[in-house]
Specification:
alpha+beta, single chain, four-stranded antiparallel β-sheet
């Protein structure tokens, strides 16, 4: 099986190099971790490469890259905090709505990417999208200021 996978990676590497890519094939282990948080699956994948670097990503209930880490303790701590935050958020009456919002936002990002990769978007529309995005960002920041903070072990990453 391993020989087949190595041969398959070689075929992919050749095809990608023909497209102009620089390809580095690394042997690594891929780990899948999942939790049940009050009926919601929260799952992660991370790989460990030969340089002992860890790439962690949450894949359920929605995709969210968590970063690259130098050791397993950082990966475990990051997952632990994330699970604590989900357990806390699951106490909200709006928890399922928040999960749906995140999924919708991720889909919107994909839709937007398709828009600009496949279409010549008029300047007026670009400006309209920019204004709508700014309104949403402002609403999120304003909501932070008017809402009670419920998780305090770690500061927010972006707001």
């Amino acid at each position: 099986m391993r020989k087949y996978l190595i041969a398959e990676a070689d075929i992919h590497s050749i095809a990608l190099r023909q497209l102009g890519a620089e390809v580095l094939v690394m042997n690594s282990l891929l780990c899948y971790v999942s939790f049940d948080v009050k009926g919601t699956e929260v799952a992660y994948v991370y790989n460990i490469n030969k340089k002992n670097k860890y790439f962690l990503q949450r894949i359920k209930p929605y995709h969210e890259p968590a970063g690259i880490f130098s050791n397993e303790e950082e990966v475990i701590k990051t997952i632990q905090i994330d699970i604590e935050q989900f357990e806390n958020a699951a106490n909200s009456h709006h928890f399922s709505e928040f999960i749906k919002f995140n999924k919708d936002l991720n889909e919107t990002i994909r839709n937007f990417e398709d828009l600009y990769l496949y279409y010549n978007v008029p300047n007026e529309t670009v400006e309209e999208i920019r204004k709508e995005l700014h309104k949403m960002q402002t609403l999120i920041k304003r909501t932070k200021e008017t809402s009670k903070r419920v998780y305090k072990k770690k500061d927010p990453d972006t707001i």
